[in-house]
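Notebook entry, structure prediction.
Reason for the run: the old model in the group folder had no record of what sequence produced it. Starting over properly, with the input documented here first.
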Amino acid sequence: MAKTRGLFPASPAERPAEPRQRLELLRRELSERWPQTLARFRAEFERVAGVFHRVPSAADVPGELERICRERAAHRLVAWPAEDLRVAIAPALGAAGITVESMPRAVPPDAERRRLRALIAEADLGVTGADLAIAETGTLVLVSAAGRPRSTSLLPPCHVAIFDRTALVESLEQLGLVLEAWHDGPAPPERGAVINFITGPSRTADIELTLTRGVHGPKEIHAIFVDGGLGLHG
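New structure, fully documented this time:
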C-alpha cells in the first residue's frame, strides 16, 4: 500500500453539529418510509445468508423462537433480560421445555460471571435485541452493556436478534449520525465498551481458501421483525 497511489482523494467527513436534534428529525423521516427500509434490509440480510422472520406482534415472538428451537433440536437458550429484549420470552419457552437463562442486568461477581460464560458457551441459541438494523448492508448493530454481554451473540452456534421499526436506518451515512448522537455528552453509566456490527454468519477462508462458517462465531443468524412493535421498555 505504501508503494501505490490512492485510487481517489479522500478526507474525513465533517462531524455533524447538534447530532441529537438531527437524529430526532431523521427518526421522524424514517417513520414514514420504514416499509421500504425494511424490504431493503431483508433483501441485504438474506443476501449475506441471514434468515429473516416477521411476526405480527410481540406476543408472537416466543412462538417463533420455539419453532426455531424445534427445527434445530435446541433445548438451551441464553438471552438478554426481558427489559432489554422488550419482550418476555422465558415463561412461554420454559413451558415448552426449553431452558432460558436470562443475563443479569447488574454486573455479577467473578464466580457468577465465569459460570455464565461457560453456560453461554454451551447454549444452543443466543437471543438478543438489536439497537440498529442497517438496510444498506443487512447489518445488525448491538451495543454491549450490563445484561447484554457480547458472548450472547458470539458464542452459541445460532444467534437470533429481535427488533422493530425503531431500529431501522437506511444507510451507513445515517449510522454515522446515530453514533455521533450516542456519543454526544457523557455516556450512560450502564453502557459497555463495545459496539458490534454483525453482517451475516461467521465466515472464514483462512484454511486452503475454503469458505467455512461458524469458526469465529455463529453458523446461523436470524432476525425476527415485530410489525406491531416491542412493548417492554428498559
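Summary: Residues 19-226 form a domain with the Rossmann fold fold (CATH 3.40.50.10420).
The old model has been moved to the deprecated folder.
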